Structure formats: C-alpha cells, structure tokens
Amino acid sequence: MPRAIRGVLVECDPSIKSIIVKIDSEEHAYVVEELDDQTLVIQENMLPLLKARLDDALKETQQPADDSGSD
Amino acid sequence: VVDQIRLWQIENERMKATPGFLFKEFENQKEYEGCAKYADEIGVLVWKSDAKRMFFVTRHEQLRDHIKSRKAK
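Structure tokens for the assembled complex are given below, as produced in the milestone run.
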C-alpha cells in the first residue's frame, strides 16, 4: 500500500523555496518532503509560523546594510 | 532598492499553498500510474512526479477506496 501523508503543497519561486529549506534546516519542523525546485510539502499546522519566518527572512533581505535613513 | 523590494513582494505573493495529501511509496510503476491516472480523472490531482513516483491530491477518501478495491481483486 502506498502511504498518504497530510500536508500543504507549496509552490513558489526557487529563491523562496531555498529560504524555506534554510529555515527548516535549523529546526526540521516545517518540511515534510522536498519535491522539486519550486515545490515542497509543509506540515499543515506549521504553515502560519513558516509564513511569519519567511516574512522576517524577506524583510532582512530587503533592508540594505546602511540605515543612514533618507533625506 | 525600491525595485528590489517590489520584486520580493511579487515573489512572496507568487507562493501558492494547497492543503491535501502526498501519496508515496508505491509498490511498482504500474500501481503508481494507475492511482495517478485515477486521481486525475476524479479531479483531485494537483502535482505529480513520475520520476519520484509521488503525487499530491486535494482529497484522499475516494482514492483510498479505489486502491483498496484494486487490492481486493
């Protein structure tokens, strides 16, 4: 019998996927299965937390090194 | 910098999440193909990989029954 695993199929850009994999590598709490470059299966109950972590990671990337502020 | 931010936002929105079930560990290629075909026919198939012999469906009840009935034969 094949196995059926509950989860959320996430389809995104390879850049986003690599960030998700990086977040998961710290705790191994999110990713159920990596499927390909832009597809993975995530634990359903962990999705909101993952989205929050992803938003944080993206914010960090957005902020330039200098925060001298605008004029 | 503004352009960069915009790009990230677009990428973020491009993320698509579909709840359901991943089917894996089929005994053989024939079983995999039969199940994937059935899942497609009943309209629950959202992703599949022939190379990995895995697929993802939005609902699994009907497919489970189908697999069981095939086994019973």
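The mean pLDDT of chain B is 87. Chain B touches chain A through 33 residues (CB under 8 Å). Further analysis is deferred to the final report.
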